[in-house]
């Protein structure tokens, strides 16, 4: 596995995304929900990969929820960078490529995706299938 590192701007949240896929081959998704539109989010996940989110000061990790409230959108409360989203009892995640150090390596043309019509069940099923394992560590 190759480990891609990243994090928020001030360094409170750090990311390690492990994947066997070449970043130039990973589908880049431009979610069209109202939150992601405002951030211009571009997200990736490898269902066979893994994300580790390391947090320095938990007080400065904001977990934003909206809509069906089935996911936590992780934002640094200090520097404002949106780094990843986490959902589900089994904790699956996507990572935001603008938060990665090698963001340019994720070079595929973003695919607009719109999940507004999904039910809660459809949304949870899609995330189980397409998102990746995640661990949050505190250091
Ligand atoms: Zn920060």
What can you tell me about this protein's structure?
The chain is mostly beta strands. It has a single domain, classed as Metal Binding Protein, Guanine Nucleotide Exchange Factor, Chain A. It has two helices and eleven strands. The strands form two sheets. Strands 1, 2, 4, 5, 6, 7, 8, 9 and 11 form a nine-stranded mixed beta sheet that branches. It has a two-stranded parallel ribbon with strand order 3-10. A hairpin with a 6-residue loop joins strand 6 and strand 7. The longest helix has 11 residues. It is globular, with a radius of gyration of 14 Å. The mean pLDDT is 95. Zinc ion (ZN) binds next to loops.
Classification by helices and strands: mainly beta
Shape: globular
Q: How much helix, percentage-wise, in residues? A: 10-25%
Report the bound ligands by name, code or SMILES. Answer: zinc ion
Count of discrete alpha- or pi-helical segments spanning 4 or more residues: 2
> Which consecutive residue ranges, at least 5 long each, have pLDDT under 50?
none
Order of helices and strands: EEEHEEEEEEEHE
| CATH architecture classification name | Beta Complex
The total number of structural domains is 1
The main pleated sheet reads as:
9 strands, mixed
Rg value: 14 Å
Number of strands: 11
Beta strand %: 35-45%
Q: Roughly what is the average pLDDT, rounded to an integer?
A: 95
**CATH class division:** Mainly Beta
Report the span from N to C terminus: 23 Å
Write down the CATH topology: Metal Binding Protein, Guanine Nucleotide Exchange Factor, Chain A
């Amino acid at each position: 596995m190759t480990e891609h590192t990243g994090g928020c701007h001030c360094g409170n949240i750090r990311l390690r995304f492990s994947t066997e896929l070449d970043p130039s081959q990973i589908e880049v998704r431009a979610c069209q929900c109202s939150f992601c539109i405002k951030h211009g989010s571009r997200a990736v996940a490898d269902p066979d990969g893994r994300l580790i989110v390391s947090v320095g000061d938990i007080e400065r990790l904001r977990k934003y929820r909206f809509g069906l409230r089935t996911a936590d959108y992780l934002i640094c409360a200090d520097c404002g960078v949106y780094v990843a989203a986490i959902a589900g009892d089994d904790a699956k995640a996507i990572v935001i490529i603008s938060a990665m150090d090698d963001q340019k390596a994720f070079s595929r043309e973003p695919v607009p995706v719109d999940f507004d019509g999904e039910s809660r069940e459809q949304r949870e099923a899609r995330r189980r299938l397409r998102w990746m394992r995640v661990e949050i560590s505190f250091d």
